[in-house]
Amino acid sequence: MMAVHLLDGAKPSPLERLVDDYLNHCAARGLSPRTTENAYGRSLRGIFVPWCQQEGIGDVSELDGRAVDRFTAMLLQEKRANGRMLSKHSVHTYVRPVRQMLTWAATVGEDVKAKPQLPRTSPPVRDVLNRAEIDLLESVVQTERDKVIIRIFADCGLRRKELTQLRPEDIVRSGRQAYLRVLGKRARIRDVPVPPLLLRRLERLINGRPVERTADRVFLALRRNAAGEYDPLTSDGVYQMLQDAVRRSGIKKRVHPHLLRHSWMTEMLRHGMSPIQLSIIAGASVEVISDHYTHLSKGDAYEAMMRVLSGGQAERSPRYDSR
Length: 323
Hints:
The chain is mainly alpha-helical.
């Protein structure tokens, strides 16, 4: 990527101040610091502002159509450290925060004349794990803790951090139904349905652990620390456990916790769950679901439509059978 740095001690230009104001706006909206700085800040402060400085552009009003086209074209011609060109998906990732910033700038009264075009991209090819592969992963791990973790990823679609933050009191009952109360992105709380069999396994796991010297989390480390206590299981610990399970299973796909969540979301859509329902349960926007789940096949659409037209009684393909 381009290695351009602002001059030390230089007075910030109006454009730089506008970028800072936009990043403050993102933080005020409740976006996580990681999202604000890594996604938005890297594109705006690390690439866009230095490029504008090279071009002699110090104010948003100087960004006309030709200037923003040059910015996108520059990225499409940029090479990585390994000599390869940036992919269109990478360029899309860098340009989109600039478009969003300029859209916001127009709403607060700035003289915005143009916005950069987003390069056309084809939907990425995404792997999913089928139910047999998920069952295989569960079968090769050695502890009930790890088996339940894999099931929660595969059957409830939690993110890794959401799983490690679960506490016993986050199991919420409503009549015969049960939910996991999850603290998701932007500190939003949602209730995720948990299947009855998985609920029983989860409760047995909690009730079977030592009461004393135990952290108030559902999932704990397998060994005591120096003080004789069980620490909460970390996100890194979950990742390493899953990688060990993949090695044991012989699965050749690139498996990680988010792939299990992705596979769960795919399964829900294939079984006819509406994107709006999935958005509420998964804690993901309908737009994200629409953008990232275009890999569902023509056959999936046919079966979903036939189930609706037949009152939900259409025969399902065996590949949709869940555990």
